[in-house]
Amino acid sequence: xxxxxxxxxxxxxxxxxxxxxxxxxxxxxxxxxxxxxxxxxxxxxxxxxxxxxxxxxxxxxxxxxxxxxxxxxxxxxx
Length: 78
Prior knowledge:
By secondary structure, the chain is an alpha+beta fold. Helix content is 44%, strand content 14%. The protein has one domain (2-72). It starts with a helix and ends in a 6-residue tail after the last helix.
């Protein structure tokens, strides 16, 4: 987890990853202070009546590019 946190902190300019401002850990939780995702979560986007095949391709491509970047830096996202 520490490696992922450090990578995200360094790479806040990547277009498909949110920036990380701070992190801390309690006995039971790891907390991350990250950029606000103003558009909401992906479920909200997918549930929108106008979500179509082209939108699915676009969002899938964004996810793949973000994961590819993480994997290139030996980070596995769960």
